[in-house]
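Quick check before the chapter quiz. The format below is the same one you will see on the exam, so make sure you can read both the input and the output lines.
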Amino acid sequence: MKALVTGGTGFLGKQLALRLQSLSHNVTILGRNPLIGKQLAAQNLRFLPVDLRDREAIVAACQGQDYVFHCGALSSPWGKYQDFFDTNVLGTRNIIQGCLKHCVQRLIYVSTSSVYFDFSHHLNISENTPFPKPVNAYAKSKQLAEQEINQGIKNGLPVISIRPRGIFGPGDTAILPRLIRANNRTGIPLINDGKAYIDITYVDNVVDALLLCQSATNTLLGRVFNISNGEPIYLVELLNKVFNKLEYAIKLKPIAYNTAYGIATLMELMANTILLGREPILTRYTLGLLAFSQTLDITAAQNELGYKPRVRIEAGLDIFAKWWYETQMTD
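Here is the expected output.
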């Protein structure tokens, strides 16, 4: 069985590609990191250094594939809108065209829970929750990418999508590493005593969900499923767990939300002017993730996909801490 994984040199895509290979799939990965691509090629995965914006190359890469897993995206709290649009919207459109042209059996698409975020508290968000006005360029591009998926469905695209929340684990370059860097620099802003109630998801559980989408009955085509660990946790509790396992001194900086929001706004203004677009230490979006509760209802994934998180948060953090000590201690 042949499988194509976009974003195959990224955090989730790499883990998925290796799992597919362990299941005896013939795996091709697309990605922009040549170093990781070469490492995976040495493990007998086929690596194509193809950019999602390259329509011709993307469509060609879909030829002969049974399944396409679209994990690739530009994911960041900061950046130029055009870059997000070109990669996440046009890139998804290119994948859809490739799947339709070459009659791929199924596309499995990775969206994000960021499409729900609106700087307010929301618990047990269901998949049919209307999208709010997007809070940043990334969220807007992912909302638009889902519109591309919906249009593809109207054109006969066989697809199942997931919206995972807060993916973490070994290889993570975003969530936990950002918190660790913030702690090392200035400390982590603590809003309302860290009582934001949040979901996170261990990476292997997301891979499990993607494989369940691959094997799911055709009656689920066109559906989208929320994915998390199903273990909501207060932010302050999560932070204490992370830094205890790393044996790092945690530096929490209690601050009022309005004050922090003003600081983040000023930092963004400076980033867009003096710093020539470089990502600020704190963005309004990142602050919002620290301040507001957001949990997902994963009932549909559990009941219809058969999704069951195998790796609990505690065990996942242990694995992450071990990986961090082995690979990142010099950072």
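If your answer matched, good. Residues 127 and 260 are 31 Å apart (CA to CA).
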